[in-house]
Amino acid sequence: MSVFLQLKHLRKSTNAGEHLLDIDEFSIRENTCIVLSGGNGAGKTTLLKILAGLDKPDHADIIYDGEHLPWKFAQQKLRHDVVYLHQQPYMFDKTVAENIAYGLRRSGLNRAQVDETVEQALQWAQLSKLASRNARQLSGGEKQRVALTRARVLSPRLLLLDEPLASMDINAREQTIHLIKRLKSEQVSTIVTSHEPHISTLIGDEHRHLCKTGPCRYTVVKPFLFQRNMEHRSRLSKQAITCASDQPCEDLHLEDSAERSNKDPVNRSNTTMNQDTTIPKQQITAVILAGGLARRMSGQDKGLIEINGRAMIEHIITALTPQVGNILINANRNLDQYRRYAYPVIEDMMGEFFGPLVGMASGMQASNTDYLLTVPCDSPFIPPVLAERLLRELEDQRADISVAHDSTRMQPVFALLRKELLASLMTYLEDGGRKIDTWYAEHRLAKTDFSDWPDAFININTPDDRENVERKMIHQKNVQIT
Amino acid sequence: MAQLLDTSRQALGLLFSGDPALWSIVSISFSVSLRAVLIATPVAFLLAFLLAHARFPGRRVLISTFNTLLALPAVVVGLTIYMLLSRNGPFGDLKLLFTQTGMVIGQIVLCFPLLVAFSHATLQAADQRAWETAVTLGAKPWQAMLTLMYEVRYGLIAAVTAAFGRIIAEVGSSMMIGGNILNYTRNITTAIALETSKGEFAQGIALGIILLLSALLLNFALSFMQARDDAAL
Are strands A189-193 and A158-162 parallel, antiparallel or unpaired? Predict the structure, then answer.
């Protein structure tokens, strides 16, 4: 699928001089659905309006169908070929049928052709019953469907949907998603902005995140592509990924993980829990969070503390290997030592030592599996059923996050997360959020009981803890032997 | 009081007897004011649209100017145009003084600021999405403009009604520019002024009643139209 529209060096400021957008490159392929996420004020709507030719950028090199066009011509092309849908679609004060006919009437078709097309479109969107109603009278979901249909009859090359699912009930949401999927099957490229993590897997081929990066700099990040676009993914995974801080976090070892997963044929199948009762462990990437400061261990890197002759992280890797498809180590210090374990080592993508959420986000960005399992680096007794049980609970409860629970309290760093949460997590982090509990609370949470594994959450915070753990480990081994 | 009732009775008699002189006066009034509104409205709407949606230097000054001109007294307009159109004036050669065309010009000047100011306020408050939706669906800018005007049509119609109300009821400019010539430039308001000065109150009141009734009719028609559309909603 070739790129038909490319914008380079896109700059846009408010009249007051405040930067709204500063994007080096944004390109759109044919027949692709891009899910665009980003926090409030990241410039999503501004970008869409520029793409639709409704808003003039301060500067942009626009390449359309391989031609470099000055804004005046580009604007004409964009207004003709691109349709923008408002978050709350605007309905003309006319009937539904007349609303749908609006663009057609002005496209040079004769009355009979317009009527016929409108008739078909009404059936397509199951709006025939509402045809002669005034469009303003409709519910939010119905308006959205009219707006989608009104855009579709014009056969645009690119459709821009601004938060199409915001503030909709479940029914309307499903119908809208259904229509968007059908539009996708009709060779229309779409860009959908959304705060919702789910929508990206439901309809997206690509996910891009628009973020404020430092003072006045905005960059499009391409954190991951979805399974069905394998060819793009492997290509993209070799690209350096630009992200938040001034220093690009190139060292993500994506090649590593991509190769690793490509070798395994199981990874390619879209195994879901409903069809297959076995745990799709290849779809789980574990990230060991070793990026902390370990203040109580006088700054010693906890993951590297030796317990019975092996670094703590080795114990954890041993426990995780049979459970997951891939392992990542999130660390910010002693990187060379961590790299010895032959697993990709990823650094925090925004600054350092911002807490476990940043580590999770970095892990999610670097992984290309459906689920991310997070474990701390200082709990050596990882239960062998950790991934399996978390996943079962996640799917049973149709939750976003499955968190381990030890009967008294939640253990938030022992968690299984859906990868679609990255967008939400990035937004949360950009808005300055750091607290794991607060972010979890924004999502459907499944609490998974591990009270039958009392040792699972023992962690080492002090030298005394370490001795206890060593003793316990020796004891366990003895029990196993006998 | 008795006199007022008496003259009112006489006035109604005049109205229903179909006095040709009276109806000639009425038709002149309406024909002049309708022509003025019809000419002024499209230009005023276009200007109002540009003031609301285009950005050009002097925009704010123009808006303030039109708002100020709302307070323009009819006699001042009459006086100015009288001077412009009189034989010695710069447009004296057009021979428009004491003609209906002259009256139309005066009334255009009177209603134009009102049309611009009211429709500007309406278009300014219009939903920005209407314009964007029209454009993104392939409408040319002028088509999108017409769509936007359709969307805010009640506000615009109200502007036209107010403008018509102002000029059909004004007397200063019609009197000075038209000259109150019977069967040519004598309209309702100048006739009332004349009859009153002659002491013929009955005719004056009859004309006053017509003026009020026509205003009433116009407003009924408007609110009926709006109610019908609301019912369809």
Answer: parallel
Residue of B nearest to A152 (CA): B137
Structure tokens at A407: 């009967």
Say whether residue A56 is in contact with chain B using an 8 A CB cutoff: no
Residues from chain B contacting residue A106 (CB–CB below 8 Å) = 137-140, 143
Structural element, H or E, at residue A236: helix A230-237
What dotted CATH number matches B19-190? 1.10.3720.10
A-to-B residue pairs, Cβ atoms closer than 8 angstroms? 57
Closest residue in A to B231 (Cα) is: A134
- Alpha-helical regions (H) of A106-207: 111-124, 140-152, 170-185, 197-203
Q: How is chain B split into domains, by residue range? A: 19-190
Residue B18 main-chain phi, psi, to 5 deg:
70, 40
Query: Which of helix, strand or coil describes residue A107?
Result: coil
Give pLDDT tens digits along chain B (233 positions): 778 888 888 888 888 887 788 888 999 999 999 999 999 999 999 999 999 998 899 999 999 999 999 999 999 999 999 999 999 999 999 999 999 999 999 999 999 999 999 999 999 999 999 999 999 999 999 999 999 999 999 999 999 999 999 999 999 999 999 999 999 999 999 999 999 999 988 888 888 988 898 889 888 888 888 887 776 55
- For residue B143, what is the nearest residue in chain A, using CA coordinates? A106
Q: How buried is residue B71: exposed, middle or buried, by Cβ count under 10 Å (0-12/13-18/19+)?
A: exposed
> Distance between CA A7 and CA A21 in Å, rounded?
12
CB contact under 8 A, B136 and A93: no
A344 in Cβ contact with A365 (< 8 Å): no
Q: State the DSSP H helix or E strand holding residue B144, giving kind and residue range, or none if neither.
A: helix B141-151
In sequence order, the β-bridge partners of residue A207 are A35, A224
Asked if the C-beta of B135 comes within 8 angstroms of chain A's C-beta atoms, the answer is yes
Which residue in chain B has the smallest CA separation from A159? Answer: B136
Q: Report strand pairing: A371-376 vs A410-418.
A: antiparallel
Kind and range of the H or E element at B88?
none
Q: Phi/psi of residue A10, each to 5°? A: -80, 120
Strand A59-64 with A3-13, pairing:
antiparallel
Tell me the ipTM for this assembly.
Answer: 0.86
- Are A355 and A403 a contacting pair, CB within 8 Å? no
Give the per-residue SS3 of A76-102: HHHHHHEEEECCCCCCCCCEHHHHHHH
pTM: 0.66
Angstroms from B139 CA to nearest CA on chain A? 6
Distance from CA of A411 to the nearest CA of B (A): 47
Stretch 202-231 of chain B: residues touching chain A, C-beta under 8 Å: 229
Half-sphere exposure of A252 (CA within 13 A, CB side): 29
Rounded Cα–Cα distance for residues A26 and A36 (Å): 11
Quote the distance between the C-alpha of residue A10 and its chain's center: 23
Distance of CA A151 to the CA centre of its chain: 27
Structure tokens at A418: 């859906």
Show residues of chain A in contact with B232, CB under 8 Å. Answer: 134
Between A230-237 and A254-262, two packed helices, what is the crossing angle to 10 degrees? 150
Put simply, whether A136 touches B (Cβ < 8 Å) is yes
Of residues B137, B150, B233, nearest to A154 (C-beta): B137
Q: Which of B127, B129, B137 sits opposite A150 (nearest CB)?
A: B137
Cβ-based contacts of A79 with chain B (< 8 Å): 135-136, 138
Tokens of B211: 């003026």
d(CA A91, CA B168): 37
Provide, as residue numbers in chain B, all residues whose Cβ is less than 8 Å from the Cβ of A45.
none
Q: Which of A53, A93, A103 sits opposite B137 (nearest CB)?
A: A103
The C-alpha of B135 sits at a distance from chain A's nearest C-alpha, in angstroms, of 7
